[in-house]
Design a protein that fits this description.
Number of helices: 25
Oligomer: single chain
Membrane topology: Multi-pass membrane protein
Distance between the termini: 33 Å
Strand content: under 5%
InterPro entries: Lipid_II_flippase_MurJ/MviN, MurJ
Keywords: Cell membrane, Cell shape, Membrane, Peptidoglycan synthesis, Transmembrane, Transmembrane helix
Pfam families: MurJ (PF03023)
Shape: globular
Largest sheet: none
Subcellular location: Cell membrane
């Protein structure tokens, strides 16, 4: 249910921190300091993703300032459902879960001796998948553009201005093609340990949307934002295309090993079947219909939360869909930040499982879950404590009124209760698909969560309105997270679930206390800026004191690693 703001250049990191491409030793292998690589790769992703996130906030601020939270904005947000789905299915979750393991295996085969164009596993994988996927993306975009009136009727029956929503949907429908190609490039580059270009795509995208709104908004109204979506999708592709094309050309620097989590690792583990590594047909088999089906169905189920929310909110007073949208965009920022590390480590876990090193994969996933829980719980405490001040500071200007601020802040506080579940689902599902094999368990878990969201939302909306919809969302995604955690031992990476849950207990307790202290501190000050400063500071200090005490796991070691490594990071 997110369009997280995050991913032209090649960002890998050397062991010595003296460049951007990993050097080869005389044996043709590459020596890495794994923690340094992960820290620096995470730093690149964080910096560019934060830039994209800030521009995403700027985009929402521009939308609120120019068009407020009324029927016109509601019409655009119905059309916005298309890029929301496309981003989840084709960039962040679905396509990446299928392609990153496949490209990781192809890169490993290339490193072990693929020769010539016909024998290059990476090119063989591209030839076997890209034309078919491009055709599928094109046909889907055309169907959305043609069927926009029917789609709007299904998504938001009773919308006051369906014609405007149809016009916007026809413009945003092009993003299925552009986002699909952008997601394909992102998966290939991440498997090659190139993170700058994928992390930069939302900077380009949000820049296009903001520019279009200000330049064309006076003449075209909210349709200008939809034009920006169409242009931004093209910029996503262009941002990554030079790096992607360079990876198709086999160079000596590309033949080195990919990084591992084993201390002082040198090169990849020897493959069990070298002949299979040199078989280009294996790359084409690596991406099969069953795998695509499971990952896309999971992503589709997860994103269908948006459909449920907007379907239930459409008959409510004008502006309700907008209040939900603004609340979600702000509240999701902690989750987006928390999942950045998982984006970087996903290829690492895939490689470990491909090499049969289950222990290394388990250790990596457990550390990721601890770090995710610390970051997202700190962010949740801040969001709940300072919701009115945050919304007022970000949006209350122009057509966005004080009443809109109060309604949005109330929704955001309820919605934030599901942020830990959202983050855990995003982290755990990567573990299920990191082996590159089809598994239906995540789809079943997400289906149970969606059913809970729909049932609880339909029951609660009559009594609590939009707050009932937000509460149902939090309950449904939390149920999915629990089901995924339960199944990890036998169906995903076999983590020690009790140990992971115990490690989450300390930051959870700290977040509850910090939220109460921050809420009280923020309410003492009349100014939104000073209130946000006071509340945010109180939340941070209390949380770090309680959760970052000696013996705490996850957050403190992660920060320590980053701060120790970042001064040596260099990029191009």
């Amino acid at each position: 249910m997110t369009v997280p703001p995050a991913q032209a250049g090649n960002a890998t990191v050397t062991a010595a921190g003296s460049g951007t491409d990993a050097p080869e030793d005389p044996g043709g292998r590459t020596t890495f300091v794994p923690h340094g690589f992960l820290a620096r790769a995470a730093f690149v992703t964080v910096v560019l993703s934060l830039a994209g996130a800030l521009l995403g906030l700027g985009r929402d601020q521009a939308l609120a300032h120019l068009f407020g939270a009324g029927s016109e904005t509601d019409a655009f947000l119905v059309a916005w459902t298309v890029p929301e789905f496309a981003a989840t299915l084709l960039i962040e979750d679905g396509l990446a879960f299928a392609l990153v393991p496949a490209f990781s295996a192809a890169v490993a085969r290339r490193a072990h001796g693929g020769t010539g164009d016909a024998g290059d596993p990476v090119r063989a994988l591209v030839r076997g998948t890209l034309p078919r996927l491009t055709l599928a993306f094109t046909v889907t975009s055309a169907l959305i553009i043609w069927g926009a009136p029917y789609l709007v009727e299904v998504l938001a029956p009773g919308l006051p201005d369906p014609r405007l929503a149809v016009d916007c949907t026809r413009l945003t429908g092009t993003c299925v093609l552009t986002f699909g190609l952008a997601g394909y490039c992102s998966a290939a580059l991440r498997a090659h340990r190139r993170f700058v270009a994928p992390a930069a795509i939302y900077v380009a995208y949000n820049t296009a949307v903001i520019t279009a709104m200000f330049v064309l908004g006076g003449r075209w109204g909210v349709r200008a934002a939809a034009i920006g979506v169409a242009v931004g999708g093209l910029l996503m592709i262009l941002t990554q295309l030079p790096s992607f094309l360079r990876k198709l050309v086999r160079r000596p620097a590309d033949l080195g090993a990919t990084p591992t989590d084993a201390p002082n690792a040198t090169g990849p583990a020897a493959p069990e079947d070298p002949a299979d590594l040199k078989d280009p047909a294996a790359d084409r088999r690596a991406v099969n219909l069953a795998l695509f089906g499971t990952v896309l169905l999971f992503a589709l189920c997860r994103q269908s939360q948006v459909l449920i929310e907007r379907f239930l909110a459409a008959p409510l007073p004008a502006g309700t869909i907008s209040h939900l949208n603004y609340a979600q965009k702000v509240a999701q920022l902690p989750m987006v930040l928390a999942l950045m590390l998982c984006t970087v480590t996903f290829p690492v876990v895939s490689q470990a499982l491909a090499e049969g090193d289950t222990e290394r994969a388990r250790d990596r996933v457990e550390r990721d879950l601890r770090a995710v829980s610390y970051v997202v719980l700190l962010g949740t405490a801040a969001v709940v404590a300072c919701a009115p001040q945050l919304i007022q500071l970000l949006f209350q200007r122009g057509a966005f009124t004080a009443q809109d601020t109060a309604a949005t802040a109330a929704v955001m506080r309820v919605y934030a209760l599901g942020l830990l579940g959202q983050a855990l689902v995003g982290a755990l599902v990567r573990s299920y698909f990191s082996a590159g094999r089809a598994t239906w368990y995540p789809v079943a878990a997400m289906t149970a969560g969606i059913a809970a969201t729909a049932g609880a939302g339909a029951w609660a909306v009559g009594s609590w309105g939009v707050l009932g919809i937000a509460a149902a969302n939090a309950a449904g995604i939390s149920l999915t997270a629990l089901i995924l955690l339960y199944g990890m031992g036998t169906r995903g990476v076999p983590i020690r679930t009790r140990r992971v849950l115990a490690a989450m207990g300390r930051p959870l307790r700290a977040a509850v206390v910090a939220c109460g202290v921050g809420w009280f501190g923020a309410s003492l000050v009349g100014s939104s800026t000073l209130g946000l400063t006071a509340g945010g500071t109180a939340v941070t200090v209390v949380f770090l004191v309680l959760a970052g005490m000696p013996g705490g796991q996850g957050f403190t070691p992660t920060i320590r690693t980053l701060t120790r490594r970042l001064p040596h990071a260099r990029f191009r």
